[in-house]
Amino acid sequence: MTGNQALIIGILAATMLSFIWGRWRHDMVAVGSLITCVLAGLVHSADAFAGFGHPAVITVACVLVLSHGLQVTGAVDALAQRVLPKSAGPMLAIAALTGLAAILSGFMNNVGAMALLMPVAIQTAQKQGLEPGRVLMPLAFGSILGGTTTLIGTPPNLIVSGFRAEVNGSGFSMFDFSPVGLAIAGAGILFITLIGWRLVPSRKQADTTSFETGSYLTEARVTKGSKFIGKSLKEVENFLLRDDVAQIVGLVRNEFRITTPHPNRKLHEGDLLVIETEPESLAAVLSGLGLKLEEDVPLGPPEEKPDKEAAALELAAEQEKKAVKMEPEQEAPFQPDKKKAPSLAPEPAQEPEKAKGHDSDITVLMEFVVMPGSRIVGRSARLLHLRTRHGLNLLALSRQGRRSIKRLRSTPIQAGDVLLMQGTDEALSEFATQYGCVPLAQRSIRIPDRQKALLAAGIMATAVGMAALGILPVAISFAAGVLLFMAFKVVSLRKVYDAVDWPVIVLLGAMLPVAGAMAHTGAADLIARFLLGTVAQGNPVVGLAVILVCTMLLTDFMNNAATAAVMCPVAISTASQLGANPDSFLMAVAIGASCAFLTPIGHQNNTLILGPGGFGFGDYWRMGLPTDLIVIAVSVPMLLWVWPL
Q: What CA–CA distance (Å, rounded) separates 233 from 278?
């Protein structure tokens, strides 16, 4: 062992221990490792930051932006609504949810797919009478397995492809990972569906959301093209009851509100439905009914007077109320729940100019408590001109648990009221400071936009197709996709860089030169010879299994991208000494680096469910260990078949 070999092995050992210890963030550890290598002369200073220009790093950043676009436009929400079964037992529900997570993870960042489907998983658990963890852990594992199926499914695949390009002159193509990845994902999901979810320990959830506000009364406009135009309210109610996500509690037509509309009343374009729903279900309700929140629909000026038809409608409403009382055999209209439910009623659009700093593509909800002596006490949203002056919408008002009878925009605000406001972070902060309100909590919400969702899906499919057919390099194809997202404002220009997980990008850019130092100093060859001599004993099949298992063990305690960067040089050296196909060993690294099922720190998706599932550190191995064994049992023969030694 030379001095440089001992030095790089010592630096890598210290780096791994720091990753496992978790005292410092992964990107800090990676940069520290890189700087140490530069100071030790193992990496030339001119090449220290070359990793940040690596195609794998660029592709990871682009995939994160594209995933964010699919998320905020509601494209994934619409897909989930169509794919997931409306009524099914626990096994079928978990199978559908886990399968959908795997499919999404193949074409978008698997952390993004997990974040999108977590609220759905929690709702599914409630419907099935299960602890949230018994649905969340299968979902997390399914999303991890799905990432193994394509080049862009997970960062380790991109890193492995980059190392392959250094060996063979070209990286792996989009679907080179699919044969082995699909076999692993299929076997893993089958196990999770039939047996695995039953092995998850029963735990009470620690927290599923940042705050609880009860149900909201949402006013949503029936837009042109809605499939429920001409349908009766009873048909709409039956649709909502099927998913048990909302109920209709009122109808507004021509500025007149009917609190108990007759079930047989037909919906017209432009009607305003008052729907009681949970915030997490809002996107699904809007998509399913073809509705838009009122602030998204241009309306006439608020001072516009109602016409004769509207007056006749009000009279008809009163007659309907009497008819309902006189005919007991007729189905009664929906009655709202008596629990706390602030009225979610955006003030009508007046085609205002955008306030400074306001970006309509960003939707943030925040709760505020109105303090005594606040400047807004006794004033309504209309008098405050919240939209025109501040770029804000008042979406809900809670007053000691009572619903507001008046339209929200004209209700005087009192001290102690809880306001649910919509706007940018800057505008919300300025409002709180200026008017003496105390912010409670923030909640992001996805308001579906059909046109942008279709555009986002089309751009993503085109980028994947261009890369898969070899028309453009992967990094260029996805960078072009991001550019189109920006040009068509699928993702807000101010949010493009926020969509990138910069600690991951810094981690990748810093670790790639360190991995290169491991290769050119001969340390990778040294480690490979040790593994071959003591474990594999010259057998290439055993050597392949050893690389896979070692990678799987490492990724359970350190970042999967860092694991791939460290193990790729060892895999290439091992294949070279055995005279075997390096592609087989690189694929083993890709699989092993992705499959972190034993701990909550091995993968971000495992960490995401730690609190909501109520899990402890030692709860993951019960389903994770059998899943690991299945991955090993399926992947080794598949690797030998698809990528012969």
A: 20
pLDDT confidence of residue 446: 58
**What is the distance between the alpha carbons of residues 72 and 490, in angstroms, rounded to a whole number?**
8
Distance CA 511, CA 488 (A): 35
Determine whether 52 is exposed, middle or buried from the number of CB atoms within 10 Å of its CB (0-12, 13-18, 19+). middle
State the DSSP string of 577-589: HHT--HHHHHHHH
Q: How far apart are CA 437 and CA 368, in angstroms?
A: 6
Looking at domain 216-326, which of 3.20.20.70, 3.30.70.1450, 3.60.70.12, 3.30.365.10 is its CATH number? 3.30.70.1450
CA end-to-end span of the chain: 29
Average model confidence (pLDDT) for the chain?
A: 75
Instruction: Give the rounded distance of the alpha carbon of 634 from its chain centre.
Output: 29
- Fill in the DSSP letter of residue 50: G
CATH topology of domain 364-444: Alpha-Beta Plaits (3.30.70)
CA distance 425 to 442: 10
pLDDT digits (tens, 9 = 90+) for 304-348: 344 444 444 445 545 544 444 444 434 334 344 444 444 444 444
**What count of residues does the chain have?**
645
pLDDT score for 230: 80
Query: What is the residue-wise DSSP string for 478-500?
Result: HHHHHHHHHHTTSS-TTTTGGGS
Q: Which residues pair with 365 in a beta bridge?
A: 422, 443
Cβ neighbours of residue 179 closer than 8 Å, sequence gap 6 or more: 638, 642
| Pairing of the two strands 291-293 and 343-344 | unpaired
Confidence at 421, pLDDT banded by 50, 70, 90: confident
pLDDT tens by residue, 211-261: 444 455 566 777 777 777 887 877 777 777 665 566 776 777 776 666 666
The position carrying tokens 């979810």 is 197
Q: What is the dihedral of CA 125, 130, 133, 136, to 10 degrees?
A: -30
The CATH 3.30.70.1450 portion of the chain extends over 216-326, 364-444
